[in-house]
Write a structure and sequence with these properties.
By secondary structure, the chain is of the alpha/beta class. It has three domains: 369 residues, Alkaline Phosphatase, subunit A (3-Layer(aba) Sandwich); 67 residues, Arylsulfatase, C-terminal domain (2-Layer Sandwich), CATH 3.30.1120; 32 residues. 31% of the residues lie in helices and 17% in strands. It contains 14 helices and 14 strands. The chain has a ten-stranded mixed β-sheet with strand order 6-5-4-3-7-1-8-9-2-10, sandwiched between helices. A four-stranded antiparallel β-sheet has the order 11-12-13-14, with helices on one face. Helix 2 packs across helix 9. It starts with a helix and ends with a helix. 49% of the residues are buried. The N terminus and C terminus are likely disordered.
């Protein structure tokens, strides 16, 4: 249906007979993606708990398949792994905005089916030049995107026009974006798709005005894996990490506290969005998905970043509310849910035609007991970038994690006995048969593998040539996109 017909359907819903349920109408869709939020932080977000968790379903075992911002966000928008999107990391080659084909995404699918679409916040790393030159990706009717994600002193691309913000309290980006998102809901007719993607709680995790003193009494985070003393069983990149010093411990503690503080503004933004949905009569038939692009370590295994396969990094919050969609309020779904499942879930809920994806709809999982069969494991991918983690493929199952690095090193954890991932059993003779089975499973899932995986190493001249081709390709792609989006402009 086109947008005019969709708008008529929504308008007519006010006069619909009692026998017509809201679910028979196309649902509105709100997708909220935070930046670097761990799965275990929802306790500090009272509005998310009261408006989403208590009225929706919480996916207790939700993960990303590549724990890095840019590839994860492309997976959320397409339902595909990095080996399908071609976006493996933050930097070229094989990464960044220029490597993403944005001609087929949730936005284009929904826009082509009559939805009004709007993005408010972060799009993809590397969007800066395209944003400054007026590029708006296809499928988006309202576009309020960071040129570069920040809390203060940032620029927005507002439907292709650059808008500058400074350091006044009124410029705090989470609040600015939340107000624009709420206005979009209130001013839009017909079904809508809203993606809200704030900077928080990504570092430096700057709190909003008035939140600077929150969580002052938060106790230090010292789980069993914190500053792991014996890393002899770990891969070389972990063994090379220095122990946590008093100075680095203080920095991690401050960052963790500020992450919680910055999430308070996100929590208020969720309240604004839900209020706008309620005020406009949309809330009952709105599918709301709340998640993050990846987690982050707070000193576990001596690590304080992302990209690794450790639980704190790959696991994310995922909450779904859809009152008219048959979800049980306050329920908890235990099956393995992935960020590549979000796009096909939204497509099925909206009843739209979408291309095949690597993910699957979560609606059967959300509406009742875990369906049979459901996935028992999944692939995690990583391509080496600026951080010291080598390229790897990993298999995370219901009860274990197996990782194989490009240099041949392996990790294997029995998560039922060792949830903190303290003791790798990859070299344990008693686990030999299990490790062999995981290795075979990895060969099946990790196909195609990341570039250079288990190679002797690519000739540096190949990387140099790839870099040159990237620059030429990127410039050509940006020019082509700008020409198509702004003909004659």
């Amino acid at each position: 249906m086109d947008r005019a017909i969709a708008a008529v359907l929504v308008a007519c819903s006010l006069l619909a007979p009692a026998g017509v349920s809201a679910q028979e109408l196309p649902p509105d869709v709100v997708l909220i993606v935070t930046d670097d939020q761990r799965f275990d932080t929802i306790w500090a977000m009272p509005t998310v708990r009261s408006e989403l968790v208590e009225h929706g379903a919480r996916l207790s075992n939700a993960f990303v398949v590549n724990a890095l911002c840019c590839p994860s966000r492309t997976s959320i928008l397409t339902g595909d792994y990095s080996h399908t999107t071609g976006v493996w990391r933050q930097s070229p080659p094989f990464g960044r905005f220029e490597w993403f084909d944005d001609s087929s995404t949730l936005a284009t699918w929904l826009d082509g089916s009559g939805y009004a679409t709007g993005l408010f916040g972060k799009y993809l790393d590397g969007y800066q030049h395209a944003g400054l030159t007026g590029y708006v990706p296809p499928g988006w009717d309202r576009w309020v995107a960071f040129i570069h994600s920040a809390y203060y002193d940032y620029k927005l691309s507002v439907d292709g026009r650059v808008e500058e913000h400074g350091s006044d309290p009124s410029d705090y980006s989470t609040a600015v974006l939340a107000a624009r998102a709420a206005d979009f809901i209130r001013s839009t007719g017909g079904p809508l798709f809203l993606e809200f993607t704030p900077a928080a709680p990504h570092g430096p995790a700057t709190p909003a005005p008035g939140d600077e003193g929150a969580f002052a009494d938060l106790p230090p985070w010292r789980p069993p894996a914190y500053d792991e003393a014996d890393v002899s069983d770990k891969p070389e990149w972990v063994r090379a990490l220095p122990p946590v010093t008093p100075a680095s411990a203080s920095a991690i503690d401050d960052f963790r506290r500020n992450q919680y503080r910055s999430l308070l503004a996100v929590d208020r933004a969720v309240g604004e969005i839900v209020a706008a949905l309620r005020d406009s009569g949309r809330l009952d038939n709105t599918l709301i998905v709340f998640t993050s692009d990846n987690g982050i370590a707070w000193g576990e295994h001596r690590w304080a970043k992302k990209e690794a396969a450790f639980e704190e990094v790959i696991r994310v919050p995922m909450i779904v509310r859809w009152d008219a969609g048959g979800l049980v309020s306050g329920s908890r779904a235990e099956g393995l849910a992935l960020n590549i499942d979000i796009a096909p879930t939204i497509a099925e809920a909206a009843g739209i035609e979408a291309p095949p994806t690597d993910g699957r709809s979560l609606l059967p999982l959300l509406r009742g007991p875990q369906p049979a069969p459901w996935r028992e494991d999944f692939l995690i991918e990583h391509l080496a970038g600026t951080n010291p983690i080598p390229t790897f493929c990993a298999v995370r199952s219901v009860g274990s994690l197996y990782v194989r690095y490009s240099d041949g090193e392996e990790e294997f954890y029995d998560l039922s006995a060792d949830p903190s991932e303290l003791d790798s059993l990859a070299a344990d003779p008693g686990a030999r048969d299990v490790v062999l089975a995981e290795r075979e499973r990895l060969e099946t899932l990790c196909d195609p593998p990341p570039p250079g995986f288990l190679d002797e190493g690519l000739d540096p001249r190949i990387w140099w040539a790839a870099g040159v081709l990237f620059v030429l390709f990127g410039l050509a792609a940006i020019w082509t996109r700008r020409s198509v989006t702004n003909p004659g402009g």
